[in-house]
Amino acid sequence: MASQRGQIKELIPGKKYRVRFYAGKIGAKRHYPSEIVYGTRRDASKILTAMLAKHDEGKLSIRPESKLPLADILRKYLVFRQSEVDKGKLSADYLKCVNDSFTNHIVPFFGNEPISKIDFAELQRFVNTLEMKLAPSSIQAIYAHLKGVLKFAFTEGYIKELVASPRLPAKSVGKKKVFSWEEIRLILGATEKRFKAVFLMLACSGIRPSELIRIKWDDIDLANCVLYIRKSKTDSGMRAILLPHIMIEELVKLERAGKLVFHDGFGEPLTNSKIYNAFQRSLKVLGLKGNPYQLRHSHTTRNLEVPNISDKVISDRQGHSDERFTRSVYMHPEVQMQEPIAALWDKKLRSENSSN
What are phi and psi of 267, to 5 degrees? Predict the structure, then answer.
């Protein structure tokens, strides 16, 4: 019978424990196999005894878990978070946002790098890369998801200590950067032909780039000039948007290749990075700075020029649910109430479009 040695650390009083013991050296490094136990201290003691017995019999793997790549830890983390969703402790929408952060930003940057090799400098490089294409609030949200994974890895014993947080961009406390009507017209004029409809849609509809890349032809009622956003990051994001005629005219010109409206020319969906890079090429010609998401901010600001337009119409068009933008969370204006907004964008951009 294996002697009771090792350590039992209480993580959540009476509910969660970490057990570990010294198992010798691997090379020059000491190895401490560990496991998280959900239950009582007696349950943790039984698990530790079983681990020690396996070790004494030579049946316990001594491969350090810290050698696992970040991508593997992410999968374990998602399984853990899904269990919280199943128990009603976490919303499915939040888990979707976490998964999007992993898929679109974290995994592409870190790849198969072992989690034990990720240090402060590496985290700062990651944040600096995000600053080139995303707003501060988005960067903070993405890093919060990554930080959750690092805490999970520490709690589960995959890393020995937490890495200090990098410098994050501060959220803007003033007005968001928006483009003037003249700048919007110049940007559209300087844009490559295959991205013209993309940036026109972002500007005159106010949708998110992540929503744009999912739009299918079935989502657009060309006869009535209505765009239906059926997939969004929030329930309030699913909405109907009245498009200006200038946008419909641009859509009719597009060459169809599959179900997606906006694609890479081969029927495959666009990516946020491709949209960002094309936008930067347009801005570079004009000597401007910004990112595609600022077209959404600009759309909201320009819509305020419409006389007597209600906050509710604007917020519903943007897919917002915040009460500061709405007067009643139970009322949904008819799409025809957006007509003054569509007319404004037709008026302001008509001359620019006809000259191209």
Answer: 90, -5
H or E segment at 8? strand 7-12
Q: Which CATH architecture has domain 66-155?
A: Orthogonal Bundle (1.10)
Residues 159 and 115: beta-carbon distance below 8 Å: yes
* Fold of the CATH domain 181-354: hpI Integrase; Chain A (1.10.443)
> What is the per-residue pLDDT across 101-143, written as a single tens digit (0 to 9) for each?
898 899 999 888 888 888 888 899 999 888 877 878 788 888 9
Per-residue CA distances from 175 to 74, 216, 236, 243, 317 (Å): 36, 33, 23, 26, 20
Parse the chain into domains and list their residue ranges.
7-63, 66-155, 181-354
Q: For the segment 299-315, what is each residue's pLDDT rounded down to a tens digit? A: 888 887 777 777 677 77
End-to-end CA distance of the chain: 84
Rounded to whole angstroms, the Cα distance separating 96 from 85 reads 11
The residues, any chain, with a CB within 8 Å of residue 23's CB and separated by 6 or more, are 31, 32, 33, 55, 60, 62
Q: DSSP class of residue 54?
A: H
